[in-house]
Predict the 3D structure of the following.
Amino acid sequence: MTEKYSQTKARTDIIEIARLCYERRYICGMEGNFSIRLEENLILTTPAGVCKGRINEDDLVLVDLTGAPKDARNKRPSTELKMHLTVYQSRPDVKACVHAHPTYAVAFSVAGVDLNQHILPEVVTTLGKIPLAPYATPSTDEVSDSIAPIVKEHDSLILDHHGALTYGADLWDAYYKLETIEHHAQTLYIAHTLGGAKTLDKPEIEKLMKTCATYGISQPKL
């Protein structure tokens, strides 16, 4: 593990990003969940049954890497915490996870339309492939089972008929990946309404991959 994510900053970041997701309509009602790994075996996460647009720092819950509570306030973590733990257990480099239900990205999975079309250079170089995890009943172990083969190779995914899960070096990194997915989905949807998307060809994609070194980022899996 690298330098620890301070608990003060972690609480501030979760509240800010949770409210931002609510305002941008990536979540509604009681939807969505967010978490940060503070230490190797200590996770700060959002609670169950609370609107994430209205939470405060005292609502957040501390758990260990198995999901067991680590404070005495008896607040329940999100019922979908298990998929966050699956990511942390598989990826020691990951410090934060964001799960939301961005409308356009989810709509592609509901319609059975492939979101993996190479149309935006920024998406190709930062996310690469955006895998679709098989449908799984929300809040069950099925979700963890459906994403386990994916998380080791990719930093974002779509849960079929459900939502998006993104993760990264900190919570803002994970959130920006969520924004990128939804922007990509919106652009692709509009392109389809205009007659279809013109995808980048293989030589163009290969040149884009070479630019990753210029920006100091690793080449994503395509």
